[in-house]
Amino acid sequence: MKQNAEGRAALVRMRDVALAWGNGVTALDGLTLDVRAGEFLAILGPSGCGKSTALRLMAGLLAPTRGQVRRDGGLTAAGRVGFVFQDPTLTPWSRALANVRLPLDLAGVARAEANERAAAMLALVGLAGFERAWPHELSGGMRMRVSIARALATHPDLLLMDEPFAALDEFTRARLNDDLLALRDQLGFTVAFVTHSSWESVYLADRIVIMSARPGRVLDEIGVTAPPGRGAAFRASPAYASQCAAVLALAAAASGAVA
Ligand SMILES: Nc1ncnc2c1ncn2[C@@H]1O[C@H](COP(=O)(O)OP(=O)(O)OP(=O)(O)O)[C@@H](O)[C@H]1O
């Protein structure tokens, strides 16, 4: 792995990336961005600026039209990258355990071991006892927990999250923010997290990048200063509020709105 200027290895290194779709839409142009090993990176930007497209390039699901996307060799094996979307995308005819087991089944893990690992991951996201629940029996927050457990079942190095909590109510969202930070401390994965919320980005991230309107590229970057574990005291602190205000102003400028 190559070290970047901050001395941390880059899991993904994007240089002057452009992505044009077949219909002539240029989603990204001149995107230069690293995802550094161990960091929680938040990506903010106006609607349609190419954030989801950038995540798909990081996952290796798309190839750039121009420029370079270098992914650490370790990410190429099955199960090394997890993906969580705004919609939990659970299979409705499979119980919670079978949904979480899916990536393990795809990786060829034996059934008994896969069941054990899936159950352990469900417990880790707070859903012990819900192994046999059907998706329709779970709340929106619980379905998202299953989706996160599924993405983490193979213990990926990199977790890509595309507005995962946008559809949840404020309290569920705050709970999931805390639980995600705890999971990340426990399991040690790197996160690239797309959000429209400057509040959420400051609460979660070590570093925030703000993208321009389409075609997207990085306009600004802000490092977050926060106590370990963050929590309610940080949420209520002047330091949190002032960092949110700074990010909000940059995001508003990027979208052409007045903050
Ligand atoms: N498969 C596709 N084919 C053609 N155009 C696409 C495709 N996927 C996305 N686009 C276009 O690429 C641009 C960037 O889309 P993308 O979903 O990456 O933006 P985004 O920043 O994630 O948006 P939002 O914040 O609204 O979710 C948009 O103009 C979108 O319409």
From TrEMBL:
Which superkingdom heads the taxonomic lineage of this protein's source? Bacteria
**One GO molecular function term?**
ATP binding
Which Pfam families is this protein grouped with? Answer: ABC_tran
Q: Which UniProt keywords apply?
A: ATP-binding, Nucleotide-binding, Transport
Q: Which CDD domains match?
A: ABC_NrtD_SsuB_transporters
Q: Which PROSITE patterns match?
A: ABC_TRANSPORTER_1, ABC_TRANSPORTER_2
Q: Does the keyword ATP-binding apply?
A: yes
Annotated ABC transporter domain residues: 12-238
Family the UniProt entry places it in: Belongs to the ABC transporter superfamily.
Q: What is this protein called?
A: NitT/TauT family transport system ATP-binding protein
